[in-house]
Design goal:
Shape: elongated
Organism: Nonomuraea thailandensis
Radius of gyration: 19 Å
Helix content: 55-70%
Structural class: mainly alpha
Strand content: under 5%
Order of helices and strands: HHHHHHH
Pfam family, one: HTH_24
Number of helices: 7
Oligomer: single chain
Protein name: Transposase
Distance between the termini: 45 Å
């Protein structure tokens, strides 16, 4: 969002982040719908973070999303031992 707001094109952002242009377009669309335009009034990192949490709560949720990790975790000692044994 910060790069887009600073005037970088969606193509440039997609290439620099290794994303599809459509993915960048999807996220930028929320800012555009909110009336934010590239080169507009400065927006702090904290405000961007708050807006992203509001627009995309599923992305901003920092909790563990891998449901299999707890199942694998119970085997950690065995896995570590096997890795050490080669």
């Amino acid at each position: 969002m910060v790069h887009w707001h600073a005037g970088r094109s969606k193509n440039e952002i997609a290439a620099s982040l290794g994303l599809a242009r459509n993915t960048v377009r999807k996220y930028v669309a929320a800012a555009e719908e909110a009336g934010i335009v590239p080169g507009g009034a400065a927006i702090s990192s904290a405000e961007w973070a708050a807006r992203v949490r509001e627009w995309f709560p599923e992305v901003a949720d920092g909790r563990l999303r891998q449901v299999t990790w707890p199942t694998i975790e119970q085997h950690r000692d065995y896995i570590v031992g096997q890795l050490k044994a080669g």
